[in-house]
Amino acid sequence: MTQNPKRYTITAALPYTNGPIHIGHLAGVYVPSDIYARFLRLQGNDVAFICGSDEHGVAISMKAKKEGITPQEVIDKYDGIIRQSFADFGISFDNYSRTSRKIHHDTASDFFKKMYEDGKFIEETTEQLFDEEAQQFLADRFVTGTCPKCGNEEAYGDQCEKCGSTLNATDLIHPKSTITGSKPVLKATKHWFLPLNEYDAFLKEWILEGHKNDWKPNVYGQVKSWVDAGLEPRAVTRDLDWGIDVPVAGAEGKKLYVWFDAPIGYISSTKEWAEQQGKDWEPYWKDENTKLVHFIGKDNIVFHCIIFPAMLKAHGGYILPDNVPANEFLNLEGNKLSTSKNWAVWLHEYLQDFPGKEDALRYALTANAPETKDNDFTWKDFQARNNNELAAIFGNFINRVVVLTHKYYNGIVPSPNEFTEVDIQTLNELKAYPAVIASSIERYRFREALGEMMNVARLGNKYLADEEPWKMVKENPERVKTQMFVALQIATALAVLSEPFLPFTSDKLKRILNCSKNDLQWNSISETSNLLPSGHQIGQAEILFAQIEDADIQKQLDKLEATKKANKMENTKAEPQKEIATFDDFVKMDLRVGTILEAEKMPKANKLLVLKVDTGIDVRTIVSGIAEHFSPEEVIGKRVTVLVNLAPRALRGVESAGMILMTNNAEGKLVFVNPDAEGVQNGALIS
Q: What pTM does this model have?
C-alpha cells in the first residue's frame, strides 16, 4: 500500500458509448469513485479523478449496424447522453475525455509501439472465424453459439452471459455469424499477442502475496482463480474496421483490440487534463508517491488486475494500482439488469420522473451497494430510504434546527453560555465522526461510511429530543441559546460530512446555513466546536427531502411490468408447423362466426364452461375448457369463431356440438380468435 501519498489518481471505468447509463453503472462504479474523490478533496489532497467514453470496439460497430448509422454517429449520440447523466448526478470528474480523440489515438499508438520495439509481443498467424457472405473476419461479439461449458445456445464469442465463462469465438459449438446468420469458416490471419504467461511470477508476487490482506475478497479471489488456472497469450489486435490502427508495418486493416486501447484511455485523459491545467501529467502515473486506484465493476476485474498491470509492467516506467475496489452487480426487482431487455432504470429517465432527487438515488444506491455480493434495488426500498431515513432523520433534524433558530433568534446563531456535561459529550462525539467516516471510506466501505454519516443526524435528533429546547425556552431561555448553538454545530458538520455522499444536499444545506464561503474542510470538524460562530446569520428553512408518494413508486413498477410483458412478447416462440394439410383437408372444416348467448359453469368441473352459441345456422351447446380464464359473465355476448362440423362428443354427460377457436397471449392467458370487423353476420363462412 502507498503510505502518505503526495497525490491520488482515481480512475472510473470508461463507459461504452453504445447506450445510456443505468443505476447499475452508478452503484457499481461512479458513485463510489465520486465519494472517494470528494472525500480526498475535502481533506486537501491533490486528486486527479479521471474517466472518459470508451468509443472503440465491436459493441460500437454492432450498435451502428443495428441503428443503421455510422459508428461516429453512435459515439457522438451516447457520449452526449452519458456525459449529461454524470453531470446531472454530480459525478465530479476532473476530466472526462473520449478515446476517439487524437490525444488518445497518439497515446495508445505510442504505448503499443514502445512495447513492440521492446519485443514484448508475440506475432502469430492463427485461424479466426470468417463470414464468407459478409467477407469479413468476425469479432467475438459478432459470433454466437453454444457455450462448451454450460450448453447455453446464445453465448457470445468472448463470454457466456449465463455461466460467466470467458471464451474464445473458436470455442463455441455451432458458431453463427450475427451479421448474416451463416456458419463462419476458419481463415488464417496475423495478429500480435501479449504473452501473459510470462508475467505469471510478477502477478503472483504483486497481487497474491502483496495484496492478500488489503484487496477485497471478491477481487482477490477472482484474480487468484485466473492466475492459478494458468495465464495464456492474449491478442492485442483485431481484424476490425473501427478503432485505432495498429501502428506497425504489415498491419494494414487491423486495429488495436479495445481491451488494450481502453485502459490507456485513463492515461490519455490524464494528459488532456494536465494540459488544460498547465500541469505535468507524468507524476500522476509514474511517481511512486502517487496512489493509483481503479474503480470498476466485477466484469472488469481481469482487465484491470491482470492485463492492464501486465501492460504497464511490460511498457515500464508506470506505477501499478494500489487498489481495485471492484463492486459486484446490482439487480433490479429480483432480476439481472439488462440493457438489451430494457430491464433497467436509466438515469436520464429517472430525473424526468424524480426531478431534483439526485441525492435520493445516490443515497439508496450507496446504502444498498453491492460491495461484496450482488444486491437488489427495489422501488419500495428506494421510497423507504428516502422517506424513513433521509426525510425523517436528516431532513427532520435540519428543519427543526433552522426553524427554531429563526423563531427564537431571527436566524442569528446565539452565543452559548456554560456547556453542560451533555453538551460537551455531544460535541466530543461530533468531533470523532470525521475520523470514523474517513476510516470506512479509506477502506472502500462506502455503505458503512454512509451509515456513520447518518449517525451524525441521529446524534442531532437525539440531542434535541433529550434537551427539548421548545419546552426549556419558557423556563430557561439562556440555556436554550447553548442548546441551539450545539445543534447548529451538528448541522454545520453535516453540511461537510454529507458532501461526498449527497453533494446536492450539502450545497443546499450550506446555502441554508449561509456557510458556503466559510471554506470548511473535513478536518475542521475535529479541530473546533465553533464551526458556525455566534452572530452568524443563517438563511430560511427549505425542505431537503420531499416525501416520495406511493403513486410515484407504482408508476415505476408499472413501467417495469410493461417491460416484462414486452420481453415476453418478443421472446415468445411460435409452435412448430404441423404436418402439411391438403386443400381437401382444409375445405372439410366448416368455420363460422357465432355469438355466445348463455354461459354457465359445468358442475364439479373447474375448467369447463357450458355455452349456448348462435352459429347463424342454429343455436347449439358447446362445452369449452376456458373456465380458468373467463367467468360465465365475461363471455356472454362475445363474438367467436366456431368449428361447427366437429363430430359431437359427450363431456360429463353434456353433448358438445362444435369447438370455439382460442389462442394464448404472451402471459399464457387464453384469448378468443374472433372477428373484430363491423357488419360480419353470425353464420358467415371463414375460408
A: 0.84
